[in-house]
Amino acid sequence: MTTNIFLQIYQDYLERIRAGELASGTKMPSENELAREYNTSRETVRKALHLLAQNGYIHKIKAKGSFVLDIGRMDFPVGGLVSFKEMSERIGRKSHTIVYENRLIPASDEIAGHLELDKHRHLVWEVIRAREIEDESVILDKDYFRSDIVPVLTREISSGSIYEYLENELHLQISYAKKVVSVEDASEEDQKLMDLNDYVHVVVVRNYVYLEDTSLFQYTESRHRLDKFQFVNFARRAHGEEKKSDISRNPVF
């Protein structure tokens, strides 16, 4: 009987969230309230809430309660190289870029390491931008470009599309990127420049971007608010000789 109640609570609220009866940001009833409503124990209620959280429908904030997540999250492509301007045009939502930094600086130890540079011999462009979608700052982009490859980068260019400038004005052939995705504690900078809404973690996508001649010219940290994006990729399974070739190129130890 307990199992049936636990599933009933889960299913009831799942349907209400999917139907839009409970909008994003709505606070869920407390465990005590749900226990009284369904005439069951808090432990049973806790199992139902845990399942809702596990499946991405609610977010539990310590000492505050559970809140409904936006299930209409925006797809963020992990597999492709897409600029923010291109992504915002694709999702069709109001967006805006705020440029906080656009300066030429000596490469720090960390950035020199990411760009495989000798920090004593290289300057890099540092561009820090907040991305607003529907009046909320939900992405913080921190870009670093090799100045020997990108000699000029103005604030005006950074407020628009840097990739349009690189490809159309500098005629750079941007080819591929290596991406690393992780969930990390929100930094002081994240808390200052993003609308985190009590979230204490962010999804960080680190990009190492290469030109057609295999030159590593850009390193980016793209920091995202947890509830606004889902990270998607397209994958296919190799067959026959193609599979053998893939395995030989990508050994796993």
TrEMBL record:
The keyword Membrane does not apply. The lineage of its organism: Bacteria, Bacillati, Bacillota, Bacilli, Bacillales. PROSITE patterns: HTH_GNTR (PS50949). InterPro entries: Bact_HTH_transcr_reg, Chorismate_lyase_/UTRA_dom_sf, TreR, Tscrpt_reg_HTH_GntR, UTRA, WH-like_DNA-bd_sf, WH_DNA-bd_sf. GO terms for molecular function: DNA binding; DNA-binding transcription factor activity. It comes from the Bacteria. Residues 3-71 form the HTH gntR-type domain. One of its GO terms (biological process) is negative regulation of DNA-templated transcription. The keyword Transcription applies. Keywords: DNA-binding, Repressor, Transcription, Transcription regulation. This is Trehalose operon repressor.
